[in-house]
Amino acid sequence: MPLSLRVAVLGPESSGKSTLVQALAGRLGCAGMRVACVDEYARSYYANRPYLPSLADVEAIALAQCRNEDMAAQQADIVLCDTTALTCRIWADVAFGGASGTINRLCRDYRYGLTLLARPDIPWQADPLRSHPHEREWLLGLYRQALATQPERVVEVYGVLEQRLEQALSALDDVLP
Length: 177
Description:
globular, about 180 residues, Rossmann fold, 7 helices, alpha/beta, five-stranded parallel β-sheet
């Protein structure tokens, strides 16, 4: 079986990543592709525990996120990753002043055929796991800075969902065999 194409969907809090992943999965599935979605593991991690993150929590989340990607890649042609270890690295940098060696290694070792970077140009939606409603542009800058050092192709998506979806599909056309 050929290797799966992994697509990272990144961006600041409340920038439409999960919505875009679901819309992409629906569109690609209708086109006959075997698609797997890897949800943001932090949501599962904090579902039954208080949201009092530590660096050890962020590392555990990054490890599980990558493990879930690996499992999904065994079953699909395209793996849509609703966040990656890079989000954990940025989270650790912002909240704790730096990431662990494990998180940095995961960021170095995991590669994506395409990275979609969602701009925060849609309204903020409050959520118990979100904490930076006024820093989304600053966080976008952190993603841009981190991605500038990566070999992956990065495409920024913006606008309403249908615009983002069309931008993402166009970018996928360039990387699909």
